[in-house]
Amino acid sequence: MIPGSELILNPDGSVYHLHLLPGQIANDIITVGDPERVAEISRRFDRVELRVAAREFVTHTGELDGRRLTVISTGIGTDNVDIVLNELDALVNIDLERREVKAELTVLNLLRLGTSGALQPDLPLGSILLSAGALSADGLMPYYGVDGVGDDFGTALSEFVTANGLRLPVDPLYFSPVLPDFLNHPAGKQLPRGVTLTAAGFYAPQGRSLRLPTRLHPELLDVLRRFDYRGLRITNIEMETAGIYGLANALGHRSASLSALLANRGAGTFSKNPAAAVDALIDLGLLLLTDRDGSTDAA
Q: Tens digit of pLDDT for each residue in 200-240?
């Protein structure tokens, strides 16, 4: 039995932070960072059966084109992702009354719809990128004793940086996700793919300097731009994807991260119409989730 200090439940039996009960989430789950974006997505549903808000965690469950969907906000960063993914998993894979892991486990399909800054100058503002892998520079997954998946990428990156006479502020871990089947949709197959760097913060961890210096300085960012490993390069920087990929892999779930590129760090530009880019991202995500007849078998 899982002790009450480890699996904390509210008086109504809901999980501690999300305030959700078993049965209130779908198996197909969209995650967003911004709590206000939850309603932007659920307003496109045919119906909404559940609305729950607790702190930065807002959850709506409903139906679109006959497909039951949940959209939930994580807030910013992998520290919040840690809460959300563990509690979502508990809702489907732990008997909360008996406090025991279920004999038969449920696999969730997780789709992150987020915004990001492009690292490569050739990536157009407003374009949508699929994270084929995530480079963790945030520090979450070592606490789970989880090594990277496909971590030759991380090792090769460290060696490349060292060969250029530089050093990364933290040792990276690389996570390659088990992608949901809906990415076999033609619209999913056409998406540009790259490796997402997940940072521990917005300023120095992403190479920004206001009053304090950053160890992710321009020379190091240039080396990261030039790195290419078996056709994969580091394309963008954000704050959640590696946590989602790492935890989803460890818990046995499928996950994918789509990013609308609102800034280009290489070119020093920012989108003039970020709302349109986010709308296009939401529309694409919902198409992938609901148009399963348009998907092809996994290769």
A: 999 999 999 999 999 999 999 999 999 999 999 999 999 99
Neighbours of 231 (CB within 10 A): 7
Last residue of a domain, which of 86, 106, 126? 106
4-14 pLDDT tens trace:
999 999 999 99
Judging by DSSP bridges, how do beta strands 228-229 and 232-238 pair with one another? antiparallel
SS3 call for 57: strand
Burial category of 114 from C-beta neighbours within 10 Å (exposed 0-12, middle 13-18, buried 19 and up): buried
Q: Same domain for 287 and 152? A: yes
Burial of 129 (0-12, 13-18, 19+ CB in 10 A): buried
* Phi, psi values for residue 40, rounded to 5°: -60, -30
The rounded distance, in Å, linking the Cα atoms of 199 and 170 is: 10
Domain final residue, candidates 77, 106, 135: 106
CB 265 within 8 A of CB 117: yes
